[in-house]
Amino acid sequence: MIWVVGAVAIDMIAVREKFLDGTSNPSDIHLGLGGVGYRVFSNLESPRRFITALGSDPISLWAQEALRADGDVILQEVKGKDAGPPLYLALMESGSLKVAASDFRIVEQALSSRFVMNALGALTFEDFLVLDANLAPGLCAELIERYAASTRIVFEPVSVEKMLRHAAALHDLALMTPTGEEMDALKAADIPRFMAERRIQNVLVTEGEQGASLYTPAGRTDYVPTAVIPVHDTTGAGDLLLAALLSLLQRGIGIYDAVRGAMNAVEDRLQKGAL
Fold first, then answer.
1. Where does the chain have alpha helices with state H?
2. Average pLDDT of 202-226?
3. Are residues 154 and 131 in contact, defined by beta-carbon separation less than 8 angstroms?
4. Are 215 and 191 in contact (CB under 8 A)?
5. Residue 261 contacts residue 248 (beta carbons within 8 Å)
């Protein structure tokens, strides 16, 4: 089983070749269900379960229905007039993220350690536990302390700021999947040393169209994309990569082959325009 604890959100993605500062920009704007945790969960090809929180406003109720249609979800619903949906707003410029903003207060406030641990129960090393950095730092730290000795924990940093919020709790992980910028924010220039000090087994550093570097106790392996596919919106590419990687690992594929297979899966979806 692959357990995902994280955020589902209403994504609002504006796409344009070049945004002009200080004025309104006519754009292609897409609205849909997103959030790092949800996108990882929805792309998994293994037995899976998603633990998250939503409000009770009409948009959140629509998201709840969509979630339940997508599989096995354990949902903490927050009642009240201020219980709106988690929101993510991004400006995509020429296929790259220009800037984004997020509001995940519902997820941070509603997901308590008691609720999540009751939902998780007893995990084993046959399981993966995926934590995304949209969780409250205290909850993430508690889950790592509780489950690090009994299961394989995966941490997805989400952004530079959120990586830094969780930095102190990152230890005894099976896998961490930062971008190069997120890894740089930790000021961990010597990644193998960082991994040894924190007892982190694998770090996959992604660099967009430049590829990725996998760090293991045996050293560093670089992966170059077989093709660079020009697209206007890459939202969710990293989440698809993680989901494909975990699905392959859960099937018993070794991590070196699993990374290549996951990269091929992302390239295939980009070719089809189906992120």
1. 36-43, 58-69, 105-110, 113-120, 137-147, 160-166, 180-185, 191-198, 237-250, 255-272
2. 92
3. yes
4. yes
5. yes
Rounded Cα distance, 93 and 147, in Å: 40
Q: Which two tokens stand for residue 146?
A: 């509780």
| Structure confidence at residue 136 (pLDDT) | 95
Q: Are the C-beta atoms of 5 and 129 separated by less than 8 Å? A: yes
- Percent of the chain past pLDDT 90, that is, above it, reads 70
Two tokens, residue 88: 């993510």
pLDDT tens-digit map of 100-156: 999 998 899 899 999 999 999 889 999 999 999 999 999 999 999 999 999 999 999
pLDDT band at 69 (very low <50, low <70, confident <90, very high): confident
Contact assessment for residue 254 and residue 245, using Cβ atoms and an 8 Å cutoff: no
Domains and CATH numbers, the chain: 2-15+29-272 (3.40.1190.20)
AA identity, residue 115: F
